[in-house]
Amino acid sequence: QVQPVESGGGLVQAGGSLRLSCATSTIIFSISRMGWYRQAPGQQRELVATITNTGSTNYADSVKGRFTISRDSAKNTVYLQMDSLKPEDTAVYYCNSAWGANNYWGQGTQVTVSS
Prior knowledge:
Layout: E1 5-7, E2 10-13, E3 18-23, H1 26-31, E4 33-39, E5 46-51, E6 57-59, E7 67-72, E8 77-82, E9 91-99, E10 102-105, E11 109-114
Parallel strand pairs: 2-11
Antiparallel strand pairs: 1-3, 3-8, 4-5, 4-9, 5-6, 7-8, 9-10, 9-11
């Protein structure tokens, strides 16, 4: 299996928190840059956060200080901890694994933040 599988989406009130999970295979996880992207209604997919297999992270300015991406090698899983959620965070969140020219996407998980 090379396609990432996301979970953890749901409905939350503004100011609340959610943790998204993305699982993939051991080999893919060990060599890939993992990332979270999101697509809001009527908008293009955008980068949220990435983490390399050496632990380097990158965040979109809109989520810095609120979201944290992390890896768990024992579970071949990448997480996105989302705190202080805002209605504008509402989107389908997609997990991505990338190495070299390879790119694999999950099916997405819906995150809805109410006012």
